[in-house]
Specification:
With about 80 residues, this protein is mostly helical. About 80% of the residues lie in helices and about 0% in strands.
Length: about 80
């Protein structure tokens, strides 16, 4: 594996992990706030928008090798 592809793969996976971590922390804070009785006034639409980074992060994590290969095709030639 070329060093460029390895660097691109690291960057994509780091970005995906940070998106999933951000969304998980927010959902965890929402869960603990609702368990404590301080239910935030977020509706279904806002909660679905706040879980969107989790889904994007999962997609990036699954497709990271294909994306890194596509990004570094021109550099390797």
């Amino acid at each position: 594996m070329s060093p460029y592809r390895r660097a691109a793969l690291l960057f994509i996976r780091l970005t995906a992990f940070s998106l999933m971590l951000f969304s998980s922390l927010y959902l965890g804070a929402y869960f603990f706030a609702s368990r404590a009785g301080n239910r935030p006034d977020d509706g279904i639409f806002l909660m679905s928008l706040k879980t969107l980074p989790l889904l994007i992060g999962l997609f990036l994590m699954i497709r990271s090798s294909a994306i890194a290969k596509k990004l570094t095709e021109d550099i390797e030639e």
